[in-house]
Amino acid sequence: MILHAPRAAPGRIDACPAPAKLNLFLHILGRRPDGYHLLQSAFRLLDWGDTLDFALREDGLIRRIGEVPGVAAGNDLAVRAAQALRQASGCALGVDITIHKRLPLGGGLGGGSSDAATTLMALDRLWNTNLGLERLREIGLGLGADVPFFIFGRDAFAEGMGERLQNIALPPAWYVIVAPPVNVPTARIFTDSGLTRNTPPIKVRGFTLSRTRNDLQPVACALYPEVADALSWLERFAPARMTGSGACVFAAVDSEAHAQEIVDQCPARWRAWRAASLARHPMHGSQA
């Protein structure tokens, strides 16, 4: 799957891409007094993900059209993003949102956060609010720590809660992503007593995968053995790691053909995809 720039027509914007992300590493440095965790991570965009359609409404209603299994419309981050943008901008318009869901829920690929970011960028144009990317990132942070990255729209070294972002130059790559059949709640992993929260900070210039890890991975593997099994299987082909809080695991490989060979061997109880890195979020082509 290749994500393209959206299609615009009077009163609507269709096929808006919401790409997946990988956490190439994820370190937990500590915890703030309010309970939020301090982290460092390297985010990588993938040329694979959901797409969303937006149709303008003059009556002010914000509606999700169709079902997203496991997510009620009122809890959907795309709907909440539209509501947050309207509140921040004072806009009186509404929208019908259709989500073509491809990314697995609870996979650590940022699906809901990416949908929210795409919603903010698309509606900033459709509603003519013209807040710009910096203001949209501020609004996005109120929806989730990963949302600002997707609005940032480039590979990034992340710090703080994930909102402090620096662009990093990474070579193009192909990845294999494997999704075991479990939904891993982020809160369950972050509140586990076995999670270490004292990893020393690193500098972006010293960032190498060989000296990093995902601090959430041991907890997820202990709680969800299918994650550990998927990692063990993928490790047969290339060094593998969990992304985010799981459940998906990934490995970088040397070519699209090699990625497809691994995907074709994936056990039937799991799902697997090949995906290329993405240098820039396609929505940036339609956003100031």
Radius of gyration: 18 Å
Overall residue-averaged pLDDT value: 95
Q: Quote the distance from N terminus to C terminus.
A: 26 Å
Stretches where pLDDT is under 50 for at least 5 consecutive residues are none
Residue share in helix: 25-40%
Beta-strand content estimate: 25-35%
Total tally of structural domains:
2
Q: The CATH topology of the largest domain, please? A: Ribosomal Protein S5, domain 2
Task: Give a brief description.
44% of the residues are buried. By secondary structure, the protein is α+β, with helices and mostly antiparallel strands. The chain is 26% helix and 29% strand.
Topology:
Layout: E1 7-9, E2 12-31, E3 37-57, E4 62-65, H1 77-89, E5 94-100, H2 111-126, H3 133-141, H4 147-152, E6 156-159, E7 164-167, E8 174-179, H5 186-190, H6 217-223, H7 225-234, E9 240-242, E10 249-253, H8 256-264, E11 271-276
Parallel strand pairs: 4-5
Antiparallel strand pairs: 1-2, 2-3, 3-5, 3-6, 6-7, 8-10, 8-11, 9-10
Helix pairs in contact: 1-2, 2-3, 6-7
Account of the protein in words:
It is a single chain. The protein has helices spanning 77-89, 111-126, 133-141, 147-152, 186-190, 217-223, 225-234, 256-264, and strands at 7-9, 12-31, 37-57, 62-65, 94-100, 156-159, 164-167, 174-179, 240-242, 249-253, 271-276. The chain has 288 residues and is of the alpha+beta class. It folds into 2 domains: 7-168, Ribosomal Protein S5, domain 2 (2-Layer Sandwich), CATH 3.30.230.10; 174-276, Alpha-Beta Plaits (2-Layer Sandwich). Strands 1, 2, 3, 4, 5, 6 and 7 form a 7-stranded mixed sheet that branches. The protein has a 4-stranded antiparallel sheet with strand order 9-10-8-11, covered by helices on one side. The two termini are 26 Å apart. The mean pLDDT is 95.
